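It is time I had a proper look at our fold encoding. Can you supply me with one protein entry, sequence and fold together? It will help me judge whether the discrete encoding reads sensibly. Leave the record below and I will have a look:
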Amino acid sequence: MHHYLTQLLSDIAAAKRTEAPPLPAEPASPFADAERYLHEAPTLALAQHCGLKAADFPPAERLTEAQQEAVAEALKEAYFTYGVSLALPEELPTALRYRFYIEALNEKCWVSDGGMTTIEYCEDGPESCPFGWRHCACLDDWLDKVEAIRNKPPADWTEEDYLEDCWLTAIQENDECRMALEQGNSPNKRYVLQLLADIEEARVRFCRAGGFIRLEEPEEDAPGAEYRPFLEWMDMPDAVFPPLERLAEPEAEALSYALLLLYGKDSLAVSLMAVSAPARYRQLVEHFTMPIRRVGEMQFLAPRGGFDFSRFPDLLEGL
């Protein structure tokens, strides 16, 4: 690995842009870049600009932390020569920083002979932050918001207040359940931890796409629409969720919260928080193995009658 890493760092250094791109034949408007950013979408990925390929970089777990840091810093310097930077939190763990610098190669972005392009990641707050809620730049503001909600009399809570409170609770419970699983010695620990990692990868991809799952039942089905299990839509077609009776309680609880966090802040999520972990796990797995239709980036519709949503009481009704 040492030899490969040395060659990789050499390739990154060679990929730096040492001179500006050739000027156009005719003088361009001084506002040409700004107009392009506003009215056109970039067509080339960063990899096409610099010649590096994400597939050439080893997984973080095969490198030491110092090696991950060296590669991330080298990529940061190389991207800067193209006028590209990444909006990453300062305290982001090294493995995550390494991953985002590699994944940036697949991002379509503008490269010009002046100015900087910043690749943004977190736009909607901690609950959908691809860095994880603990590393979100908006975390303090969000925690202050929920604290203010919890200081109000429950009778004064709005539907939004219930959703914010529920979501913070779900995130905290998810962290605690995973920590308990890691520290324990349950029979399926290794398999469940890998499944949790796969779910988290899917969550990051979905956050990058713009949000969470919205699973609803449409007024009517669309003739000829493509229905696939949600596990296929989220690029986990081979994922196997064990039957509830084969899971230890900490395993079912950890999986139930991880799956719940794939949902948006809506009344269904609040209702699922109110049921037991085994019931939550069973119903969420049913959701994700049921054929559904995708409409847009993040909206998924169940077939008519395919899932009985009435089994979950709307806990926000009447607020």
In short: Strands lie at 84-86, 117-119, 214-216, 227-229, 291-295, 299-301. DSSP finds twelve helices and six strands in the chain. The CA atoms of residues 292 and 302 lie 5 Å apart.
